[in-house]
Amino acid sequence: MRESQLQQEDPMDRYKRENRRLQEASMRLEQENDDLAHELVTSKIALRNDLDQAEDKADVLNKELLLTKQRLVETEEEKRKQEEETAQLKEVFRKQLEKAEYEIKKTTAIIAEYKQICSQLSTRLEKQQAASKEELEVVKGKMMACKHCSDIFSKEGALKVAAISREDQGIELDDEKDSLKKQLREMELELAQTKLQLVEAKCKIQELEHQRGALMNEIQAAKNSWFSKTLNSIKTATGTQPLQPPQATQPPKEST
What we know:
Helix content is about 95%, strand content about 0%. By secondary structure, it is mostly helical. The protein has a domain at about 180-220. The longest helix is centred in the first third of the chain and has 135 residues, at about 10-145. It comes from Tursiops truncatus.
């Protein structure tokens, strides 16, 4: 019955209806084609933007990496220079310390020698005084044993000859005492100067030790500062990354 109805229908109407159906299908397909083309263009633009952002981020990361490497090289060079300066300062301090110790030993030896000389001079003075007393007693005994000398001695006074002899010997002893006192004063002056030099050397050693401690503190502070600067630079390089890439750029970030 349907076939008979179709055969009885006017072919023109049938063709028109078929044409409308085909036009509707064509319009629908064109609309779908336009939608797909628009979606394709939009996807290409989005992908291109994502690719540009990923390339920009890769360039930034490469620049930061190069900058970090350059800072690392500069830091290592600075560390090497500081180590060389530290070694030079240690060598200078060692030489100064050895020189100061040598001066201390030399000054101590000079002081001991001066003390020994003073002791020898004191012993010599005591011996000469004892010998002079003994000679004076011998002269007195001989004068008292001689009758003529004892008469002259009694006429002129009991202490005159002895006084004259004692005065002569006293003059000689005074001269020798003055000479020994002068030498002793010179020795004491030299000893005082040596002690002063020793005190100055000790003060210089203490000052050098203080300077050495200050320089060691400065070196330690410089090392700590260098380490903190390096750590901060590394933290800055790793912590200040751009935080605005879209979800599609996270895989390139991880691979970088």
